[in-house]
Design a protein that fits this description.
This protein has about 375 residues and is mainly β. The chain is built from three helices and 36 strands. It starts with a strand and ends with a strand.
């Protein structure tokens, strides 16, 4: 079994993990007989660090991989299957250190069976790693990454948390983001004999990301010092605790109802430069829900602030100029901008061909005068 996992960069496109299968001996290897170990397959990267990271952008920048790393750990719950030795319906797993991995194009592949239980128990004269085992009949599996001491009840996982204060680093999804997967399978014996096969965990992001890129305009005589960034919401919560409901056809989320924000305090000496090498680029992670009234606020030197409401620059798709831009949850949105002492220009989710509009100050850019 092979799994692929892609993160769509451009807001408005679907964010999914796409599944692919390889039947080379899988049915012979992975028995689903009652009492046998459940074998899982998913995707991974090829680094030896224990964090799931963004891979390179592919397909003209429209997609970006989320790559598993070996030794990454996640938890799997089940409505029916139980732990082999413990009185619980969940077990913790990790990507094996010797996992066979292939990264190509938009996908990162790893064969099923390259995931192992973490829990260990002394059985007889030896120590055995052990996890969930098959029961008879239909059963479901609910996975969440990274592994943590979540609360679980009636197909709902609680205790996931997006912090308000972040550092803006994008390479480590585990630091602020979550991935979830839901799979259905049948164990035991079927009408034609024993049922076999691994369980595919098709993970998808349970967070909304905002990648911010700000460059100083060429007219500036010097780089622009910046001390802090805030993503502000007038309506929905950007940060806080949330729960994952696996009882729906696809995983759904319950987030706080009161508005909240996200902030990044930059290291001393941070500046917005005029080149790609010196521009300010960072990413923040928000809750897995839609957002309707957002603003960016930058604090410059001497506590000068620049607040930039994210609104339509002109009428589009039934929206009037000045209407708040709506951001779909569980996508990665990109915001590009030019900074000047008394004027800022922003462009939200541009296509590859529209990126030049930011520098050209054309198209659907938002202009802010101070």
């Amino acid at each position: 079994m092979r799994k692929t996992m892609n993160l769509i960069l451009l807001g408005g496109l679907s964010l999914l993990a796409l599944a692919g299968c390889s039947k080379q001996g899988i049915d012979r290897l992975f028995s689903r007989a009652a009492g046998d170990e459940v074998v899982f397959g998913t995707s991974t990267g090829n680094s030896l660090s224990t964090k799931t990271v963004y891979g390179p952008a592919v397909e003209d920048g429209q997609r970006q991989q989320i790559r598993w790393q070996v030794l990454d750990q996640f938890r799997v719950y089940s409505d029916v299957a139980k732990h082999r030795y413990l009185d619980q319906n969940w077990a913790d797993y990790q990507i094996k250190q010797d996992a066979a991995i292939t990264n190509s194009g938009t996908v990162s592949l790893v064969e099923a069976g390259s995931i192992e239980p973490i829990t260990k128990a002394t059985i007889g004269n030896g120590v055995s790693k052990n996890g969930l085992v098959w029961s008879e009949g239909d059963q479901e599996f609910y996975a969440i990454y990274p592994m943590s001491n979540f609360s679980y009840s009636d197909k709902v996982v609680s205790g996931a948390f997006i912090p308000e204060t972040q550092d803006g680093k994008a390479e480590d999804v585990k630091q602020y983001g979550y991935l979830v997967a839901k799979a259905s399978a049948t164990g035991g014996a079927g009408s034609n004999g024993a049922i076999t096969g691994a369980v595919d965990l098709a993970f998808k992001p349970a967070f909304t990301a905002f990648e911010i890129t700000i460059k100083a305009d060429e007219s500036e005589t010097a780089d622009i010092p910046v001390t802090k960034f805030e993503l502000l919401s007038e309506a929905e919560a950007l940060s806080g605790s949330f729960s994952v409901n696996f009882g729906t056809s696809a995983a759904s989320y319950t987030c706080p109802t009161s508005a909240s924000n996200i902030s990044v305090t930059f290291p001393e000496g941070t500046k917005i430069g005029k080149t790609e090498e010196t521009q300010l680029k960072f990413t923040v992670f928000a809750l897995p829900q839609n957002f309707s009234k957002l603003s960016l606020r930058f604090t410059l030197e001497d506590d000068v602030t620049r607040t930039l409401p994210l609104t339509y620059a002109k009428a589009k798709d039934g929206h009037a100029a000045g209407d708040a831009i709506e951001f779909d949850g569980c996508l990665k949105h990109r915001i590009y901008g030019l900074a000047m002492q008394n004027r800022w220009i922003l462009y939200v989710n541009p296509t590859v061909n529209e990126l030049d509009n930011v520098n050209a100050r054309e198209g659907e850019s938002m202009f802010f005068n101070f």
